[in-house]
Amino acid sequence: MSAVYFQLLTIFCFCCTALTDSGNNGVVLRDVGGSITIQCRFTRLDQESLSLRKGLDEFQIFHHNTVSRKTTTAGGFKERLQVHGDFPNMDILIKNLTSNDTGPYWCRYEKIDIRAPQPIKTKGQGSVLLVVTDTDTTCETSDKNLILISVVISAVLLLGILLALFIWIIKTKTQCNTVKPQRINNNDVYEDMRGTGRR
């Protein structure tokens, strides 16, 4: 159950941060053992390198440098990663996905500028949030029943509260609208003797 919450939290966080720009972005659901193609796109040709990053800590999975013509791939991805296309528009295929591959992926282009102390880093198009699900895990029926019971109880409580509020409003409104009889002040000189009995 905690894995489901983790996946939902990951989706929520990524949607709030990484999907704010336009482009070929989205949430991609895959099964364990499947594959995904991440399409890195950039419009300007003056970039010198491309790297595929994963996670919030920006773990570098793939790096391609056009100046040195050197390509590096992270250890866990060497046998599972294939690259197609020409720089700067490259398609990166990751095969044999595992549940550890779940997370945000994005393309980062770098350009070395003589006037800048650090390379100029620019995010390219093609960001995706990969959610790898295990097909063998299913929700137990007791969990489904518990969810159904909690939803029904919540609905009944909500209806009860709304009904009580409605009755209270009607009762208060009718009490305010009823006219109370006004007491007529009697003249103290004259007394009403009808109520007293004769002796």
TrEMBL record:
Keywords: Membrane, Signal, Transmembrane, Transmembrane helix. GO terms for biological process: adaptive immune response. The keyword Metal-binding does not apply. GO terms for molecular function: signaling receptor activity. Gene3D superfamilies: Immunoglobulins. Residues 1-22 form the signal peptide. It comes from the Eukaryota. It holds the Pfam family V-set. This is Uncharacterized protein LOC121529214 isoform X1. It comes from Xyrichtys novacula.
